[in-house]
Design a protein that fits this description.
heterodimer; A: 115 residues; mainly alpha; 4 helices; 84% helix; B: 239 residues; alpha+beta; Alpha-Beta Plaits; five-stranded antiparallel beta sheet; three-stranded antiparallel beta sheet; 19% strand
Amino acid sequence: MIALAVMGLSIGAIIGWNLPLRIPAVHARYLAIAVLAGLDSVFGGMRAEIEGRFDGVVFGSGFFFNMLLAAGLTYVGDRLGVELYLAVVVALGVRMFQNVGAARRLWLSQYRQKR
Amino acid sequence: MRQRSGQVMLVVIFAVLGFMVTTQIRNQQRLVGMLPLRRADELTALLRAAEAERDLLRYELASLRVRLEEVAASESAAIAALNRELASLRLLSGVSAVRGPGILVTMHDSQRPRTRQQDPNVFLIHDDDLLKVVNELRAAGAEAISINGQRLTALSEIRCVGPTISINSVRVAPPIVIAAVGDAQTMEGALKMRGGVVDQLSLWGIEVTMTRERELLVPAYDRVLSWKHARPAEVRGTP
């Protein structure tokens, strides 16, 4: 599972590094927010995996849907003149910490039980 | 089969994530490279270089003008009359330096302590203050005027540029020294008139001091005279 993830990540990284895709400065923030949402989904998936309730469909749909939602909220915020992307950053940031923390605690307790 | 498609899905998702992250990193590197701050630095360097070049050319122009005067002086008496007219026109246009009696007007920004509510702008010398002084001097018969070494010609501007004042496209800052050749008594009287320019400026604490000089030197206009649009026109009779 981890091997698959690393493999996918490196394939994407190699493509991204060699494909000179230029994002205009105006739209750079949408990509940044989408990346953040993607990272959040990955951490959520990690936690679910350790908890033993990982579902590929939930993970895949959440990954893409959250990205679109985050970028969409940022867009709406820009239209309205409200810095909505800050709300996205805060919400996703807090969630990432929670998920990583929960995953770490679960993993530690599993590790101790094994010994 | 279901297991296998799930694995492919996982790889694809992570590939998308990796692609987005690297794209974002590369774009961010590019964006940081063109921060406005760095741009301003570059422009400052360019401006410095251009100004250095301008000063060099100005020096060259001055030496060439000296040569022109030498040549003009060595000509025969037959064109003496023409030369006289030329000298007069050169005085008027400002391309030759002027010597003569006059006054030196020195202006300082206000040193008066001010409260926080007061607008600091009114205590500084502005372009319109200079314009008023120059206007008054001209009205009092000044024949040649320079401000901080910049000769005022028919084409000179006196204009605010940020915190400084631009005269002949050269930035000038207080203390301002105005040299005016003309009748010293008349010019001093015009400036010091009750309710006049000096009176108004002293309201804000802007110091204006005047000294009469027996012999003043007003420098020449040190830029190239180039005409892009104006051409001499033949006009018959008085217009």
